[in-house]
Amino acid sequence: MTTTETGAEAGTETGTTIDPITFEVIRHRLLAITDEQGATLAAISGSTHVVEASDYNVGLYLPDGSVAAMGRTILSHASSMAAITRSVIADCAGSPGIHPGDMFIVNDPWKGTVHAQDVGLIAPIFFDGELLAWTGAMCHMVDVGGMTPGSFCIDATDSYQEGLQMPPTKLVDGGEVRTDVWNLILGHTRMAPTVNLDLRALVGANNTAVRAMTALAEKYGAATVRTVMANLIGLSERRLRNRLALLPDARLHSRAFLDNDGGLAQSSENATYEVDLVLTKRGDTLHFDFSRSSPQVKGYINCAYSGMMAGIAAALLPTLAFDAPWNEGLFKPVEVTCPEGLICNAARPAAVSGGALEAGWLVEMTALECLSKLAACSDELLREAQAGPAGGPDKFVLTGAGERGARQTYVIMDCLATGGAAYAHRDGAWTQGQHNIERQKISNVEAVEMDAPLLYLWRGLVADSGGAGRNRGGMSMGAVYTVHGGRDVTALNSAHGWEVPNSTGIFGGYPGAQNTRTVVHSSDVKARLAAGVVPAVGELTGERPAMRGRQGLYRLGDDDVLATVPQAGGGWGDPLDRPAASVQADLDFGAVTADGAVRLYGVVLAEDGRVDASATAERREGLRAERRALPADLPLPEQPRGERTRIHPMGDGLDVVEADGRRWIACACGCVLSGAEEPWRPRASVRSSRDVHAFSLATRLDEGLELRAYSCPSCGRLHATDVVRRGAAHPDDIRLLTGKEE
After folding, report:
1. Coil/strand/helix, residue 124
2. Dist. CA 500–CA 692, nearest whole Å
3. Residues 344/290, Cβ–Cβ less than 8 Å
4. Per-residue pLDDT tens for 17-49?
5. Cβ atoms of 256 and 733 closer than 8 Å
6. Looking at the predicted structure, is the pLDDT value of residue 658 above 80?
7. Number of helices (H), then strands (E), in the chain
8. What's the half-sphere exposure (Cβ side, CA atoms, 13 Å) at 345?
């Protein structure tokens, strides 16, 4: 390994030369320090967000705020804490000043956090009187005030209704906690004991890093430590730029839909909004352009600039930087265009308390789709591309008095146990968890029942939830609850992905399940339990009110039942290409129902319920013939006659080939669909449908949307399944660039 590969070259800041062994020792010590920070935070906090959902992160930063090392928990905090550090430097350097032993608290979305519930604490690390580095810790807190318990204020129309939002504020002054600021924070939350421990955990995490970094500087010298940190950033930048340089130049397009705007969902202002990304890769740079996204809205679904950057980071780091240290260097090849005032770069005082799970989440989904399709244009990186992971959770916040009489707020984390996306070489992992949380966990049933006034009737894998494809998306975990031992219990549910498939398939794969929720009021559940029967939801009597994506607060009584199914990962490739034996294995495992096997995968089941392989092959050929007979907007080009040379893939069903002095996009069957410089969809067979159930477990689709399936006119292979506005132009998701385009 050369010094260039390790980053152990002369430091630009100090001129200090570091040998490779010292570089690697300090590099791994920096990562170990972030692990120690995280362990300290989790040990002190005890909150479900930290201990069970891993909704926190920690990091070390250069004196200018650049990320040098970060923890591997929730990825969206990576860019967020760097932005917070820079805000502290900008706002506090003059007054009140930055000194040894200080710590600054921030939860203002326009000062770096993703939403107000994410509270960050930043501390300078001084050595021999000079600023050596910064450290920071951040976690999602259960409640910071506002209109609604849990501070997801779905009825909010501006940020002033969403609770306490602190710009950079000195919380610890020279090692002494400012009790006035501490008490002010606790005075704004419904869950003061929990938030009190969270604050102590953030302080403890930072103290851990300060002690460890001081010891590191004492052993190796401040100049050496700073040089390693700076060179780590340079190493990551080089690795990403080198990887980008090997990929073809391309313009990629992705659009995701938010199907309502919060508590305004029943008003005349409700609509379906768009996060629209055009990603241009040229040379060794990436340009993310969100300027065609919807304007910011009155509801709480917006995100500020920090939320947009968090979504980009969560998509970029594991997709193209999987083998590089995760730090500031990975953002240096990135350019972003998004005018302020859009749904994913909202101007103050827009409501943004839902932004991390709404517009910010769909920034991640669109960025991940574009980056995956870019990676799929490389044989080397094809295995890193993936379909859409779970497109966003259905938040479940419970408030009420438990058996001990105290009124509390509980955030139930089951909605995070979602199926992972499918890849070219494998199915998605079931209950993988959210893509942006690297080390996610969820609560044990017993822990929830002990803490919250709930009783589980069932929790398990949901058949047919993973998107169909040659490789199937992973299954999500569903749950059924009833109130038990509680008084004055209210629930809040809120989700997008209610009437829109957000967990999109790729290269012909179908979308995963949409969020689903059922409530049964005044049911006979207690009578059935007393009779020794644990009932299924469909067996219960009682009132079944119509649910909305943004349900808001509603009461749950002792005889009420709530059932939820979260979104699940999308599929990869044509479902008709999934081997019959694999579908049979899915049936045996319970991943796919008999109805799903027939409806989604085109199999034929014998009288004994098992897959009839020969009948299945015959039926699938008939379905492909039906596709071949579908119309196309344009005829196929004249097929090139000369010898073909494969240049690179576009997924694993299409190739870019060169023949007759021109580059073409060709199906794996050999049929040329279009020139490489033009979109191929207008020349493909296309079927438009509003029957979302023909593509997934879902049964609801927004009135303004449709699904389009594009297949090869020659062999009938499905190459794309797109969610689009009704009557919209054909998507143009991958356009290879020749250098002439603007």
Report:
1. strand
2. 9
3. yes
4. 789 999 999 999 999 999 999 999 999 998 888
5. no
6. yes
7. 14, 27
8. 18
**CA–CA–CA angle 326, 332, 338 (5° rounding):** 110
The residue that leads in pLDDT, 440 or 95, is: 95
Q: Give residue for tokens 């146990």.
A: 417
Between 51-60, 311-320, 449-458, the lowest mean confidence (pLDDT) is in: 51-60
Residue among 55, 123, 127, 140 nearest 88 (CA): 123
Tokens of 449: 């029942």
Please give the radius of gyration of the chain, using alpha carbons only, rounded to the nearest integer.
Answer: 26
Tens digit of each residue's pLDDT (9 = 90 or more) over 689-700: 999 999 999 999
Q: For residues 527 and 49, what is the distance between their CA atoms, to the nearest angstrom?
A: 35
The neighbour count for residue 202, using CB atoms within 10 Å, is 32
> By 3-state DSSP, what share of the chain in percent is helix, strand and coil, each rounded to 5?
30, 25, 45
Burial 268-291 (b: 16+ CB within 10 A, else e): eebbbbbbbbbbbbeebebebbbe
Strands 477-483 and 395-401, sheet pairing: unpaired
Q: What percent of the chain has pLDDT over 70?
A: 95
- In 3-state terms, what secondary structure has residue 607? coil
Mean pLDDT of 275-304: 96
693: DSSP letter: G
Give pLDDT tens digits for 223-235. Answer: 999 999 999 999 9
- The yes-or-no verdict on residue 741 having pLDDT over 60 is no
| Dihedral angle, C-alpha 504, 478, 587, 471, nearest 10 ° | 20
**Sheet of strand 654-659, all strands in order from the earlier edge strand to the far edge:** 645-650, 654-659, 662-667, 672-675
